Amino acid sequence: MRKWKWALAGLGAVAMGSAVAYAQYSDTEEPAHEVLKSEDLFELRDYAPMIVAEVTVTGDRRSARGQGFRRLAAYIFAQDRPDGGEKIAMTAPVMQDRPAQDEQIAMTAPVMADSPEAGVWRTRFVMPGKYTLDTLPTAPEDITLTTVPGRRMAVITFSGNAPQRDLELAESQLRAWIAAQELEITGGVEHAFYDAPMVPGRFRRNEVMIPVSAEVSAE
């Protein structure tokens, strides 16, 4: 049990630094959720259903996230919509994952085969709670508006610029914690990024999230 606790030190001191930096974003809406368990950098959360705008991009993880962010930002800031309309408030976090095999789009751009980050990546913005699918502005054809069902997520929080090695380390530690809690994994890993690019790395809040079965007791 102690081995993974020592390894967490390499992910950065989140509890103090990130909390201070994130205070300036305290009015930014986040997805509704209940914390069922909290231990060190880990949490077990129950999320309510949420509406997201999502776009899928082919490439390496970081460049795909940048492209996805720009496309979704153009939508919420009313820069690229079929029918125009009002701006949508920015929320946090920006989420990224690899869609399930049956959800992946056909490859339309060349991918470096020797890159471990290459592939199909999905970027999601959570829509403010005041909207429904019927009241959101119409999205361009490459952006999908959809509802993510309520789910239970195991989460690890860490600071930094979230390079691939840190995401992999955080995922490894989270999987070890999930196993120690005797939880059942029910889906793929997701990444969540809470801060703007200009925020110094040591003050950024990042999370790796993995869905787990809600049938298992959180105690």
What does this structure look like?
The protein is α+β, with helices and mostly antiparallel strands and 219 residues long. It is 22% helix and 27% strand. The protein has a 9-stranded antiparallel beta sheet with strand order 1-2-7-9-8-4-5-3-6, with helices on one face. A hairpin with a 2-residue loop joins strand 1 and strand 2 (42-47). The protein is globular, with a radius of gyration of 17 Å. The two termini are 17 Å apart.
How are the elements arranged and paired?
Blueprint: H1 2-7, H2 14-22, E1 33-39, E2 42-47, E3 50-59, H3 61-76, E4 94-97, E5 119-126, E6 144-148, E7 151-158, H4 164-180, E8 190-193, E9 206-212
Antiparallel strand pairs: 1-2, 2-7, 3-5, 3-6, 4-5, 4-8, 7-9, 8-9
Question: What is the gist of this entry?
Answer:
The chain has 219 residues and is α+β, with helices and mostly antiparallel strands. It has two domains: 2-48 and 150-212, no CATH class; 51-148, Regulatory factor, effector binding domain (Multidrug-efflux Transporter 1 Regulator Bmrr, Chain A, Alpha-Beta Barrel). The protein has helices at residues 2-7, 14-22, 61-76, 164-180; strands at 33-39, 42-47, 50-59, 94-97, 119-126, 144-148, 151-158, 190-193, 206-212.
The count of β-strands is 9
What's the order of the H and E elements?
Answer: HHEEEHEEEEHEE
Figure out the total of helices.
Answer: 4
SS strand fraction: 25-35%
- Mean pLDDT across the residues is 83
Order of strands, main sheet, comes to: 1-2-7-9-8-4-5-3-6
- Estimated helix fraction: 10-25%
Span between termini: 17 Å
